[in-house]
Amino acid sequence: MLAEERTFIAIKPDGVQRGLIGEIITRFEKKGYKMLAMKLIQVSEKQAADHYAEHQGKPFYPRLVSYITSGPVLAMVVKGYGVVEGVRHLVGATNPMNADVGTIRADYAQMMEFNVVHASDSVASAEREIAIYFNEDEILDTWKTKTEELIEEDELL
Ligand code: CMP
């Protein structure tokens, strides 16, 4: 049985400005993932530097930081069984040119710099990134999705 885990997803300024918030959230919701937290934020320089620490020093880093801080970002915490890998499948490859047809990046993006959405690449990254953008008291895990109910019932059989 896959474990339940949390992931961090951000709809980047290009996704927000192009009116894609609804389209993108719908894909995660329809999959049955649990929305634990969601807020529209202005990413600070400090949050951007913490989030993208692994890319510091790379040629694209200055543009990455200036872009992610250039406009509103929709930050989300999402929970589900194998959700880190599952969300990355729905999002598609970092470079939209290589993203599978039907993924968010293949459907809505043309280039790496403006790839519409960010999703954590591991459970450890997810927890690190969640802590950059959310306090635990903003994360609402006090309810059950249908998937959780079905799986809990199944485990009792
Ligand atoms: P994201 O999932 O937000 O994680 C880091 C981001 O850096 C990535 O999406 C891309 O938008 C960007 N990125 C990664 N590699 C490159 C690259 N070689 N050139 C330009 N941007 C990149």
Features:
4-stranded antiparallel sheet, globular, alpha+beta, binds adenosine-3',5'-cyclic-monophosphate, 157 residues, Alpha-Beta Plaits
Largest sheet: 4 strands, antiparallel
Strand order of the largest sheet: 2-3-1-4
> What is the fold named in CATH at topology level?
Alpha-Beta Plaits
Give the name of the CATH architecture: 2-Layer Sandwich
CATH class: Alpha Beta
Number of domains: 1
Helix-strand pattern, N to C?
EHHEHHEHHEHH
Radius of gyration: 16 Å
**Strand share of the residues?**
15-25%
Poorly predicted runs:
none
SS field, number of helical segments: 8
Query: How many strand units?
Result: 4
- Measured between the Cα atoms of the first and last residue, the distance is 15 Å
Quote the average pLDDT: 96
In CATH, the homologous superfamily goes by the name Nucleoside diphosphate kinase-like domain
Q: Overall 3D geometry?
A: globular
Class per helix and strand makeup: alpha+beta
Helix content: 40-55%
